[in-house]
Structures are given as structure tokens and as C-alpha cells.
Amino acid sequence: MKDLGLNYEKIDACKNDCMVYWGVNEYKTKCETCDEPRWTTPESTPDENDLPLKKSNKDQKVPVKRFWYFPLKPRLQRLFMNSKTAVLMKWHDEERTKDGIMRHPADSPAWQTFDYNNPEFARDSRNIRLGLATDGFNPFKTMNVAHSTWPVILMPYNLPPADCMKKSYFMLSVLIPGPSEPGNNLDVYLQPLIAELKELFEVGVTTYDASSKTNFQMRAALLWTISDFPGLASISGWSTKGEFACPVCYKFNLPYWEKNLVRHNLDVMHIEKNVCDKVLYTLIDSDKSKDNYKARMDLKKMGIRNALHPYSDEFGKEWIPTSSFTLDKSEKERFCKVLKNVKVPDGYAANISRCVHLKPTRIFGLKSHDSHIMMQQLLPLSLRNLLPKSVRSPLIHLSRYFRDLCSKTLQVGDLTRMEKEIALILCQLEKIFPPAF
After folding, report:
1. CA 387 from chain center: how many Å?
2. What is the pLDDT of residues 185-203, one digit of tens each?
């Protein structure tokens, strides 16, 4: 990548994520907050074959923690070095169908509001709008279950819908190593990126456009971030739980950020997986079900749904009454048999049948995309003729809600209708399932 002009920087950081040794802090030797040293001296035994002039490992300074930053300017400039890609970078303005139907982020009120607030930026369609996504992952899988590495990815939205979400156009901008996640100190590691984004918006960088064979001053702006709900707290710098929780508050030092209509987006597939898992585990009454003894005691304390309250038999043993939303043994077998035997086109979904066992009946190991297909397509199919209609109907409507939300085209009227429908669906679910659900 270096031979293509796409270099990277290694930047030292405090072991407690308090600060990074960059900018005005580049030459400091210890953390201003926790007083932890910047470097550590490795302990090693000198090799008897070492030359006398060779520097010993004991004299080397090794940073306690280090992260990687990949400068954004050369990566954005390369988008215009290919004539075909350079043409696609203007697609959002010159070739997009403008009929009021939302097919692309450029059709959204958030994009249009940004253009209204920044007319000079919007005047040149080659200026780039970016989205930022981040989440933690474990690169070691089961070898180290506690490890969490955080990549920060940028996506250019100027491209057509089929291209802007392709992996080849994703740009890794920051890579924060583990073993622990940065938490609310994520913004500490974003300082080099924020500084470069600020410069790209206010000044820009001279770029060669291969389609017109001319130079222009390319500028870029960050429209929004994408994360799951816990990641939102880290990337926004504001807690999403507790007394002062607020999922709307913002924290990036960008001149236009405060006026952005939508600053943080929640990843729908994370939400779908959480919802799908809770629905499946509750229906088949697994050990991860939201219908358990504590949930039933909540009902008793609240004085509602007396038929579901725990009771004691003559021997003092606690029992939990059977609920209308739990599948019995034969229903579980029919439910899992449908999922086990389902066949879908190649590439449409993973092999979901591998996650379903018939004896004993259980479902496990669903990935995010598996839950996506399960929630939208397979759950309504599997629930036909199972459970009472009062239980089955809101679950099927919930599946249709996610299917409508993820459709390739959306209209403002559709979103207005869906906003009313989901409130009704949630009320119906609250009447059936325990409050913990």
C-alpha cells in the first residue's frame, strides 16, 4: 500500500486511553492525566553472539500502547484517479433519479439539509460526503474471548447505491488495538481524523480529476456515524444509559456537526439480531428466554396478569404457569422442522439449518445476517398455524415492519405509516409478553 502512496502512521497512546502522543503532545514522555509513562523497556537476555556495536534491547524504548492512523486525503484523491470512478463520484447529483422516492442517502432530508446549510460545499458535486462506522471485534475468536479491537471505517456516499457499500470502497481510517475497548475515550483516538476532516471541509486538497483531466479543490464532510446502541455512547461521547442518558447529544469538533439533521444512526442489523434472538429464545423457552422466574415475579409485584404469577405446591416447590406465547413440545418440533428444512437460493442466506437442532429442539449460533433473514422472511413462515392468533399476529407484523424498513425504496408516507404501526405493535407485544421482553 505504501507504493501506491497510501501510507499510515503509528501513534503512541496512554495505556489507560487518557491521551495520544500526537499534535501538541507528540514529544511528551508521560500521560498528563494518570502519570503513566509513555514507554517501557523490554526485558531480554543479550545473545552471546551479538556484535559489540549492536544496540541492546534494554536500550530500546517500546511504547506501552500504539494505534494506527491511515491519512484520509490520499485515499480520497485516489477515487478521482480512475476516470470511471471519477464519473461515479458525481452520480449523486448528475445521474440520480429525483422523483421524491428515497433510494440513496442523497434523497434523504439529512443530505438536503446539509446542502442547504453549506451551499458553497454543495456547489461542486465532486465534494465528498462520508459516513463513519465503528464497532469492536475479536480477531482471535475463541483463543482470547476478552479481546476487543476497534476499526473505524469511512464510506463515500457520492457513489451509486450498488457501489458505496462495496468493501472495495471502504476506507480504514483508525485501528485501535485491544485487549480492552476504548469505551467513552474513543474520541481520544479520533483526534487525527477529526483534524483532517476539519481541514478537508475548510480548505480541501488539490486533486486531479481523471474524467475531466483537470485539477480541482476537493473538500469532504462527515454526514453521520453508524453503530450499534452501546457503540453510540462511545462514538458520541455521551452515555446512552443511566440518569443522564441521551442518544441525541453530540461530541465531534467539526464546524458543521451541530447543524447536521441526523448525526448518529443505529445499525438496523444489530437491532434485528437482538430482537430476533429474544423472540426465538422466548418462544422455544430456552435458558436465554426473557420469560423466567424473575420476569414472572415482576408481574406479581406489579399486580398484573395473575394467571402468570408463580405459585407453590403443597410441598413448597415453586411452579411457573404455562404461558400463551411459549411453544409446547409438538409445536417446537414443527417450528424447528420448518427452519431445518428451509431451502433458499445460493447467496441469499447462510446455511441456517446448521443452527437448528431437532432432538433436542434448540436454535443457536445465528449470525447477524442469519437473524436478518430469519426475522424478515422465515419467522412469519414458521409461525403459521402455531400459537394463538393474538400472539402470532403482532410477531408477524413486527417482521413486516423490519422488511418494510429495509426495502430498497422508501417514501415519506411509508415512514409516517410505519412510525404509527410500530407504536401499535409494541403495545400489542406489551399486553402479551413480560415487561423484560
Report:
1. 33
2. 888 899 999 999 999 999 9
pLDDT surpasses 50 at 333: yes
- Polymer length in residues for the chain: 437
For cell 443452527, name the residue: 355
Judge contact between 193 and 71, C-beta under 8 A: no
Cα radius of gyration (the chain) = 27
Give the C-alpha distances (Å, rounded to integers) separating 229 from 201, 238, 269, 276, 282. Answer: 28, 12, 11, 16, 22
End-to-end Cα separation, the chain, in angstroms: 48
Q: 145 pLDDT exceeds 80? A: no
Beta bridge partners of 363: 356
Rounded to 5 degrees, what are φ and ψ at 66?
A: -150, 140
CB atoms within 10 A of CB 355: 19
HSE-up (13 A, CA, CB side) for residue 98: 8
CA distances from 356 to 263, 281, 368, 432 (A): 39, 12, 16, 26
**Residues 153, 173 contacting (CB under 8 angstroms):** yes
Half-sphere exposure of 15 (CA within 13 A, CB side): 12
CB atoms within 10 A of CB 395: 22
- Give the single-character DSSP code of 67: E
Distance between CA 246 and CA 131 in Å, rounded?
A: 21
What dihedral angle (degrees, nearest 10) is formed by the CA atoms of 221, 227, 233, 236?
0
Alpha-carbon torsion angle 100, 103, 108, 111, nearest 10: -120
Is the Cβ–Cβ distance between 384 and 375 less than 8 Å?
no
β pairing state of 150-156 and 128-134: antiparallel
Tell me the DSSP string of 226-243.
EE-HHHHHHHHTS-SSST
What SS3 class is residue 136? coil
pTM of the model: 0.84
Cα(254)–Cα(366) distance, integer angstroms: 39
What pLDDT shows up at residue 249? 62
**If we measure between CA atoms, which residue out of 161, 109, 111 comes closest to residue 412?**
109
State yes or no: cis peptide before 179, omega within 30 of 0.
yes
Q: What's the pLDDT score for residue 232?
A: 82
Whether 57 has a pLDDT exceeding 60, the answer reads no
Predicted confidence at residue 398, as pLDDT, reads 95
